[in-house]
Specification:
mainly alpha; globular; three-stranded mixed β-sheet
Length: 299
C-alpha cells in the first residue's frame, strides 16, 4: 500500500512518539514525588522514648509550634463553649484529678524512657497546664499540645468514680506527652505528597480517591489506632502512679461502649480500637500498672 502523499501516516507516528514522551515525563514526575516522599519519611523518623517505637515527626514541627497551635485551639473552644466556674464542685474535683496526674508526669516519663534505654524527654516541662469543665452531654475529654485540657460533663456519669475519670484524663494527657499532634501533622504531609504523586501520574479523580482510601485503611487508620493504644498504656501508668485504681479502666470502657449504644464501625475502618480489643489490651497491662502504683503511689 502506498504511503499517504501528505505524510499523515508519519504524522500519526510522530504523535505516538509524543504521547510516549509525555507518558515518560509523567512517570519521571511520579518517581520524583515518590523519592521525595521516601526521603521525607526516612529523614523525619525518630524513636519515641515513651514507647521505644520509631515514629514520624516532621523536624520542622517543634514543641513550641505545637504548644502555640494547642493554645490557639483551646482559646477558640472556650470562646464557643463556656466552661463551668472554677469554684464549681465538679470543676474542683476534675482539677484535683488533673493536679495529681500532672505531679506524676516526671517519674512516669523517666521510668518509661528508662525501660527503652533512652533519656527522658523534656518537652513537657514547658507545658502551661490548665483544665476546664465544659457543660455538654457528650462523654469526652481532651488534652491539647501544651497541656490545655477540658472534660465534658457528659463524661462524669459514665466514669462514675475519680479512678475511672483519672484513667480517661491520663489517656488524654498521654496524647500530648507522646506528641501525637505532631505525628498526625506529619502523616498528613506524607498523604499530601501521595496525592500530588497521584495527580502527577495522570490518575483520574476516582483512581486517586481509591489510592487514598487504600492508604487510609492500610496506613493512616492503623497508625491512629496505635496512637490510642499507646495513650492507653501511658495514661494507665499515670493514673496508677497517681494512686488511682487502674482496674477501673475495664469497667470504664465497658460503660463507654454501652453509652454509645454498642454502635461502632468495624475496627479496620476506625481511628480507635474496638472496645473488646481495648479492654483486652488494658487487662494485659494491669500487672505493669499495679507495679507502677506500688512504686510511685505516695499518698
Amino acid at each position: 500500500m502506498r504511503n499517504d502523499p501528505f505524510g499523515r501516516g508519519d504524522g500519526q507516528q510522530v504523535r505516538r512518539r509524543g504521547g510516549g514522551l509525555f507518558g515518560n515525563i509523567r512517570w519521571l514526575v511520579l518517581l520524583g514525588f515518590l523519592a521525595y516522599g521516601g526521603c521525607y519519611y526516612l529523614s523525619n523518623r525518630t524513636q519515641d522514648p515513651y514507647t521505644g517505637e520509631t515514629v514520624l515527626i516532621d523536624s520542622s514541627i517543634g514543641p513550641e509550634q505545637e504548644r502555640a497551635l494547642g493554645l490557639q485551639a483551646y482559646k477558640e473552644i472556650l470562646s464557643q463553649e463556656r466552661p463551668l466556674p472554677k469554684s464549681d464542685p465538679t470543676a474542683q474535683q476534675i482539677t484535683e484529678i488533673a493536679r495529681r496526674l500532672i505531679a506524676k508526669v516526671d517519674v512516669v516519663t523517666a521510668e518509661l524512657a528508662a525501660e527503652h534505654g533512652m533519656a527522658a524527654p523534656e518537652h513537657w516541662r514547658q507545658f502551661e497546664w490548665d483544665v476546664n469543665v465544659i457543660p455538654s452531654e457528650q462523654a469526652n475529654a481532651f488534652c491539647l499540645p501544651g497541656g490545655k485540657m477540658a472534660v465534658y460533663t457528659g463524661l462524669v456519669p459514665v466514669a462514675r468514680s475519680a479512678d475511672a475519670m483519672a484513667v480517661v484524663m491520663g489517656h488524654e494527657i498521654a496524647h500530648a506527652l507522646l506528641r501525637h499532634g505532631a505525628q498526625r501533622m506529619s502523616q498528613q504531609k506524607l498523604a499530601q505528597i501521595g496525592q500530588m504523586a497521584g495527580a502527577a501520574s495522570g490518575m483520574d479523580p476516582q483512581q486517586q480517591q481509591m489510592v487514598m482510601a487504600a492508604m487510609g485503611y492500610g496506613y493512616l487508620l492503623p497508625y491512629a489506632r496505635s496512637h490510642e493504644t499507646q495513650a492507653d498504656e501511658v495514661g494507665l501508668m499515670l493514673a496508677a502512679a497517681a494512686c488511682y485504681d487502674p482496674n477501673e479502666a475495664i469497667g470504664l470502657w465497658q460503660r463507654m461502649s454501652e453509652s454509645s449504644g454498642g454502635e461502632a464501625p468495624p475496627e479496620f475502618s476506625s481511628t480507635h480500637p474496638n472496645p473488646g480489643t481495648r479492654i483486652q489490651t488494658l487487662q494485659g497491662l494491669m500487672p505493669k500498672a499495679m507495679e507502677y502504683r506500688q512504686k510511685f503511689c505516695r499518698q
